């Protein structure tokens, strides 16, 4: 069993078929039995896309799909990792010499992120080895946070093997920071909901400091997740990090425009906080300060009064230094409008008027349009899937996760669910031009899960 503090619920192995099967596979691979098991759920972000790394609140919930790891601490300094999925090869390394290759986002590197995060947090140099077997049922590269769930699971595995405790918030912050070892400049939503989730409620996740507030979802609707079958690993391309950098540059130009200390500003939320104005007013500031044409690196330098060398070495990340253009106006408009939609979504859930599902659905539809048009993180398959979901009864539908592939999330009235599932299955997965592999097809209703 595993625990990370008095508030953490423990995994009960009992006669759970999946755990028993994992135990058998562990025994077959390592010739021994696991000493404990750790679980971390995936998540679906209901609304609030690409704004956590800008400092703004998001509204995710955990899903039932998860990562499970069976663990046996050993007396050697060898870390042996196996995966029940044969597509992911075994990996072995010294527990005292963790090297994470940013150029290859291989599955085991996500485990190493969590392991190294705990190791560095406690300043440990001599760590015991472990045999670990990973079993995940979150569709990979689908926008349901399979990679972050593995990072979180690995962090908790390492903490448990060391016999140490941390709060859920501390663990979430460590895992959010350590996932950046793989080269993705994420914001912390995925790790936070993985640890802070509670059954039956979504969470408003706020940052600086990290905190979570329950958001009760309407009882008359369910959220349905559908996989576009287009895989997108955000660590394998530059799309994600370019968006992070565009938001950072937009924040600096907005700060400069308003006479703030732009060189100390990193996130769009900081500009709003320093100005002390509303999100709606920030949209007006964006209209005044930024133009809709793309910015060249040279124009950004001129606006900030710095050299090209200073831009590349002091502001841009290594993998964005050669980007020829940056769309600052569009990214800032998306972030400020999406941040406002999150707060409106929470307010509607709290007030619970009669047409709450319709209102929430419209916010989700607005979110997808903004992601598609202003943030440009959708793809044709996602757009098609969103349209199909709306056609067959969803009050709202949008991409969820980083985008460029992965899943949609739709809000569907309970009484329309059976017909909705059947029609979407036929129209998208079995349509005349559909050629998706069966194992990638995924369409299911979900309710808020928890960390257990």
Structure description:
The protein has 14 helices and eleven strands. It is of the alpha+beta class and 452 residues long. The chain folds into three domains: 13-216, Ribosomal Protein S5, domain 2, CATH 3.30.230; 218-230 and 379-451, 2-Layer Sandwich (Alpha-Beta Plaits), CATH 3.30.70.3170; 237-376, de novo design (two linked rop proteins) (Up-down Bundle). Strands 1-2-5-3-4 form a five-stranded mixed beta sheet, sandwiched between helices. A four-stranded antiparallel beta sheet has the order 9-10-8-11. α11 (328-351) runs antiparallel to α12 (356-373) and α13 runs antiparallel to α14. Residues 1-10 have low confidence and may be disordered. Monomer. Its EC number is 2.7.1.157. Residues 109-196 form the GHMP kinase N-terminal domain.
Overall number of structural domains? 3
CATH architecture of the largest domain: 2-Layer Sandwich
Q: Note the beta-strand portion.
A: 15-25%
Q: Outline the low-pLDDT stretches.
A: 1-10
Which secondary-structure class do the elements indicate?
Answer: alpha+beta
Average pLDDT score: 90
């Amino acid at each position: 069993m595993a625990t990370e503090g008095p508030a953490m619920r423990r995994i009960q192995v009992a006669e759970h078929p999946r755990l028993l099967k994992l135990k058998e596979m562990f025994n077959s691979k390592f010739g021994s039995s696991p000493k404990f098991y750790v679980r971390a759920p995936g998540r679906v972000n209901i609304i609030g896309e690409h704004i956590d790394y800008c400092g703004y609140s998001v509204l995710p919930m955990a899903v039932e799909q998860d990562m499970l790891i069976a663990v046996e601490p050993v007396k050697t300094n060898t870390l042996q990792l196996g995966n029940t999925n044969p597509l992911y090869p075994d990996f072995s390394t010294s527990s005292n010499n963790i090297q994470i290759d940013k150029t290859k986002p291989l599955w085991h590197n996500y485990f190493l992120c969590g392991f190294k995060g705990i190791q560095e947090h406690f300043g440990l140099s001599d760590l015991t080895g472990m045999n670990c077997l990973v079993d995940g049922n979150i569709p990979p590269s689908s926008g349901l946070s399979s990679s972050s769930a593995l990072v979180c699971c690995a962090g908790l595995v390492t903490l448990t093997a060391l016999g140490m405790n941390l709060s859920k918030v501390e663990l979430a912050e460590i895992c959010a920071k350590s996932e950046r070892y793989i080269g993705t400049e994420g914001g912390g939503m995925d790790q936070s909901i993985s640890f802070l989730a509670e059954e039956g409620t979504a969470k408003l996740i706020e940052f600086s400091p990290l905190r979570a507030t329950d958001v009760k979802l309407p009882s008359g609707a369910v959220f349905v997740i559908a996989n576009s079958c287009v895989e997108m690993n955000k660590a394998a391309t530059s799309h994600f990090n370019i968006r992070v950098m565009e938001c950072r540059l937009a924040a600096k130009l907005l700060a400069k425009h308003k006479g703030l200390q732009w060189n100390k500003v990193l996130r769009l939320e900081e500009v709003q906080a320093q100005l002390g104005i509303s999100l709606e007013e920030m949209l007006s500031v964006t209209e005044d300060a930024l133009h809709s044409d793309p910015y060249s690196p040279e124009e950004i330098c001129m606006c900030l009064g710095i050299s090209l060398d200073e831009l590349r070495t002091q502001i841009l990340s290594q993998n964005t230094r050669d980007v020829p253009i940056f769309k600052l106006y569009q990214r800032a408009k998306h972030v400020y409008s999406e941040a406002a939609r999150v707060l409106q979504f929470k307010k509607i859930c709290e007030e619970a008027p009669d047409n709450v599902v319709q209102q929430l659905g419209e916010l989700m539809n607005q979110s997808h349009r903004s992601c598609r048009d202003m943030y440009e993180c959708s793809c044709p398959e996602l757009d098609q899937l969103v349209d199909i979901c709306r056609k067959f009864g969803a009050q709202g539908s949008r991409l969820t996760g980083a985008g460029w592939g992965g899943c949609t999330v739709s809000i569907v009235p309970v009484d329309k669910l059976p017909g909705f599932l059947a029609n979407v299955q036929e129209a998208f997965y079995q349509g005349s031009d559909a050629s998706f592999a069966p194992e990638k097809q995924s369409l299911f209703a979900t309710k808020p899960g928890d960390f257990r």
